[in-house]
From TrEMBL:
CDD domains: PBP2_LTTR_like_4. InterPro entries: HTH-type_LysR_regulators (IPR050950), LysR_HTH_N (IPR000847), LysR_subst-bd (IPR005119), WH-like_DNA-bd_sf (IPR036388), WH_DNA-bd_sf (IPR036390). GO terms for cellular component: cytosol. Keywords: DNA-binding, Transcription, Transcription regulation. Pfam families: HTH_1, LysR_substrate. One of its GO terms (molecular function) is DNA-binding transcription factor activity. Gene3D superfamilies: 3.40.190.290, Winged helix-like DNA-binding domain superfamily/Winged helix DNA-binding domain. This is DNA-binding transcriptional regulator, LysR family. Residues 1-60 form the HTH lysR-type domain. The keyword DNA-binding applies. The keyword Ribonucleoprotein does not apply. It comes from the Bacteria.
């Protein structure tokens, strides 16, 4: 049911000023317009709220009882509008995003630090998901937007490719391949390899592109998480095939070497629901990621 808020405001001003003329001036309306607002309000509630004669204006007993409630209603509306204005002006508010774990291990925390400095009152909840689950979290409105590494093939979602992240080798500094400027995929034959398994979008992309090139790579260790692969490589248990975005947190005992012939990379993309406007807080972070999550 639509409540006559303008009538409630008119009622409060008449009660406080004791005059239709003064209330009309304060609200910048004619006395006729003010009278119509009161008439609509009284018709809406089915009760007389103001007794008016040619000389006096007074609230009825019901009007006096309603006045504090009316003031609370208008105050609540004013606070709601002020809150929305503050959100718009300062991009305040809590947000939830989804991201593949590799970006959280590497480059995204630097961007989040910048966001936290600019918006210290905002809380950010991050859902660590595989690319498939990042997409589903956005689609199901569990997250306002997400960062994923799958090809853009979701027609109901807007996909913005930010950068292409190449696969590289991580190995101990004392490994025989550590001193090379680059390593061809074919040169990995005979070495113990560590790759990601399960539903990892990285594994699917790597295997598909290598298959098209006629190169078969066999692994000795298959893990679910980047941190596990890095840990195994650090112990000298093999060469970890991961992506270059981990470079910012590279351990000092490990070397990072580009993989070539062919260069295999993954798209790092932002995804959001098509045709929907982000909240100001989410839009501020989205813009920061677009600006800063660029080429390595």
């Amino acid at each position: 049911m639509k409540h006559p808020i303008d009538g409630i405001e008119a009622f409060i001003q008449i009660a406080e000023l004791g005059s239709f003329n003064k209330a009309a001036e304060k609200l910048h309306v004619t006395q006729t317009g003010l009278t119509r607002r009161i008439q609509r309000l009284e018709a809406h509630v089915g009760l007389k709220l103001i007794d008016r004669t040619t000389r006096t204006v007074a609230l009825t007993s019901i009007g006096r009882e309603f006045l504090p409630e009316a003031q609370r209603m208008v105050d609540a509306v004013d606070r709601s509008f002020e809150r929305l204005k503050t959100m718009s002006r300062f991009s305040t508010g809590d947000i939830t995003i989804a991201s593949v774990p590799s970006l959280m291990y590497g480059r995204l925390p630097r961007i989040l630090r910048s966001y936290a400095t600019r918006h210290p009152s905002n809380r950010v909840e991050i859902l660590d998901r595989t690319s498939t689950l990042v997409i589903e979290a956005v689609r199901r409105r569990q997250a306002e937007f997400g960062l994923h590494v799958q090809p853009p093939n979701q027609p109901d979602l807007h996909n913005e490719v930010l950068v292409r992240d190449p696969f590289v080798v991580y190995c101990r500094n004392d490994h025989p391949l550590a001193g090379r400027p680059a390593i061809a995929w074919a040169d990995l034959a005979g070495h113990d390899l560590i790759t990601l398994g399960g539903s990892s979008g990285n594994r699917l992309l790597m295997e598909a592109q290598l298959s098209r090139s006629g190169i078969e790579v066999k692994t000795r260790f298959v893990v679910e998480y980047f941190s596990s692969a890095i840990g195994l490589a650090s112990e000298g248990l093999g060469i970890a095939i991961l992506v270059a975005s981990l470079v910012e947190n590279l351990r000092p005992d490990l070397a990072q070497i580009p993989l070539v012939d062919p260069i295999v990379d993954r798209p790092v993309s932002l995804i959001r629901r098509r045709g929907e406007t982000l909240t100001p807080a989410a839009q501020a972070l989205y813009n920061l990621i677009v600006r800063d999550l660029g080429p390595l």
